[in-house]
Write a structure and sequence with these properties.
Elements: E1 4-9, H1 16-29, E2 34-39, E3 49-51, E4 57-59, E5 61-63, H2 66-74, E6 89-92, H3 102-111, E7 115-120, H4 133-139, E8 142-145, E9 148-149, E10 156-157, E11 159-164, E12 167-168, E13 182-187
This protein binds adenosine-5'-diphosphate.
């Protein structure tokens, strides 16, 4: 049967990794061939696994670019040439950190019959669309938007609150701050704050 693109989005702590792990584990149980990739910058828990905040995990390749994913999938021969057997399911975690080449790769894989499952943040800490995610969401056959629990009021949380030394981050702060005293919380629209 045909390939397609599934996208799982939501703020931090909404269970995106858990849901990706759930879908991938079911495929493995059904003896489907599965490959999971994640950006090398995310070394949460284990460099060769996708791990959820609640502790479950699956094996994954940590990669530096979408091109590296292509290389891993094709081995020596060109991707999608018909000479290489592609996995039945290809998963990506933290998809928002991938380069723009992730979109054509996802479409090529889906076109070649692969079930592509992407998990990532739809919004950055400012509440703005995050990287390649809007493009993936628009092109997906299926989209699941997950919510966490707002730490301020208990409402469904759709935003990721970034705190620097305990205070809301500034709009102009770099998305990746090295060595900063930063932390993240799940919050609803009302309690999400960004300092201008
Ligand atoms: P994501 O990949 O979206 O960051 P994970 O799958 O890694 O999410 O983690 C989801 C888990 O995070 C939940 O099952 C729960 O155990 C934990 N968690 C921590 N804080 C919260 C919160 N504010 N709301 C919901 N779950 C939370």
């Amino acid at each position: 049967h045909g390939g397609h693109l599934e996208v799982i989005v939501g703020p931090m702590f909404s269970g995106k990794s858990e849901e990706l792990i759930r879908r991938v584990t079911r495929a493995v149980i059904a003896r489907q061939r599965v490959a999971v990739f994640k950006p090398a910058i995310d070394d949460r828990y284990h460099a060769t696994h996708v791990a959820s905040h609640s502790g479950r995990s699956v094996e994954a390749h940590a990669v530096r670019s979408s091109e590296e994913v292509r290389q891993l999938l094709r081995g020596e021969t060109p991707l999608l040439s018909g000479e290489v057997e592609l996995p039945d399911v290809v998963g990506f975690d933290e998809a928002q950190f991938f380069d723009a080449g992730l979109v054509p790769l996802a479409l090529e894989l889906a076109h070649a019959g692969v079930r592509v499952v992407m998990a990532g943040l739809d919004l950055d800490f400012r509440g703005e669309p995050f990287g390649v995610m809007p493009d993936l969401l628009a092109r997906a056959e299926s989209v699941e938007k997950l919510t966490a629990v707002c730490v301020e009021c208990g409402a469904p949380a759709t935003r990721t609150q970034r705190l620097i030394a305990g205070r809301p981050a500034r709009y102009d702060d770099a998305v990746v701050l090295v060595g900063a005293q930063e932390s993240y919380e799940a919050r609803c629209r009302v309690h999400h704050a960004v300092t201008r």
